[in-house]
Structures are given as C-alpha cells and as structure tokens.
Amino acid sequence: MNQEHIEELEHRCHRFNLLNDILNIENERLKHDVHFHKLVTAATMGKKEQDDEKYRVIIEHYGEPAQVLKAIEEMAELICDLLLGFDTYDKETIDDIDYMWSKIDTVRRFAQYHVNIEPCEFDKAVSKSVKLECADVENMLSQLRIIFGSWEDKRVEKLDRTMERIGK
After folding, report:
1. Number of folded domains in the chain?
2. Domain residues for 127?
3. Which of 73, 93, 109, 111 could be joined to 89 by an S-S link, Cβ 3.0–4.6 Å?
4. Residues 91 and 135 in one domain
5. Helix/strand/coil (H, E, C) string of 63-79?
C-alpha cells in the first residue's frame, strides 16, 4: 500500500467515525424525545398492543381500585343480562341461581362492612385467586362469543369512547 492509499483510508475512517458520532448523538436525542417514542411505538405495535396501551392509560387515569370495582359492575350487568335470556327456570336452574346470588350477597355484605371513606388501594395479595377466576371468566367469554357471536366491534367502540371520555 502506498502513502496516498493509506491517507485515503484514514480519511474514510475519519469520515465514518464523524458520521457514526453524529448518528449516535441523533439516536440519543430521539431516545429522549417522548413524542417520537410514542409515534414509533404506535407504528410498530399490533392492534392488541395498542389496545393494551389504551387499557393502561385508562387504569392510570381512574386508578386500579376504581377499575376493579368497574369490572365487578360490568360482570354483574352481564349476569343480569344472561339471566334475562331464560324464559323459564327448572328446579336445577333455580338452585344454580340461588347459589350464584348467595355468592353475590356475600360480596355485598362484605363490601358493606368494609366501607372506608378514605381512598383505598386494591390488595394484590389476592392476585392468585383473581387470576384463576379471570381465567374462568375468559373461558366463559370465549364460549359466549360462540353462542352470541363476536362483540369485537362493540369492544372497540367502548374502548374508544372511554379514551374520548378521559381526553386521550
């Protein structure tokens, strides 16, 4: 290699190092640009991830305790609507309904005696049993989806309406 060739290689290496430094600086700036991060995240997320992010925003807005209570309310409404689907009840169905209402009444009585006028936190120590019951609910929802058809469009409408309600 002659001197001229070596100088050309050194010049190219120097230019490469400068360009690399510029790219590193720009990369660091972009990492700290929250807006850019959100745009990139939204562009690379699938629909489920986007919805999960919306759910996180809603939980952050209302708080975990409020959303746990909202889940209870929504499940109670589902119970009532499902019960309306029966024209008549046989003895076994009435027994099942009585059992279910006894559980609901237990929850109502529990809530009455644990009223707290101060802001409260949800005790995550019950998460194992909550996860098991959520799995049961999800399995039942999958079956209800087969019985009644998909509600994906309604789910999306309600999620978007909630986001509008909280101004996001």
Report:
1. 2
2. 45-165
3. 93
4. yes
5. CHHHHHHHHHHHHHHHH
